[in-house]
Specification:
Blueprint lengths: L1 H13 L11 H7 L5 H14 L16 H14 L1 H4 L2
Length: 88
Amino acid sequence: MYQAAYYAKWLSDATGGAQRWIQPVPEKVRRTCVLGSPQEVRQQLSEIIASNQMTEMIVTMQLPGLDPAKAMRSLERFVREVLPALRR
């Protein structure tokens, strides 16, 4: 939410407030972001990959305001417990 609010402000400022590009709405974040246990993330990402023609995926774990140690822990867990199952 913190990051989305800043991006919304920056994009709004860049367009003179003419358009709201990002709307930091908690329900939308819950609905559109992949969050959960390694098993849940594997399942969600597997479904996304299967239903879309993708050549790459961008994963963000270091969000503004998040303790870097927590982000690194999540990244290491993703590499260890999620990524191997997604490789083809």
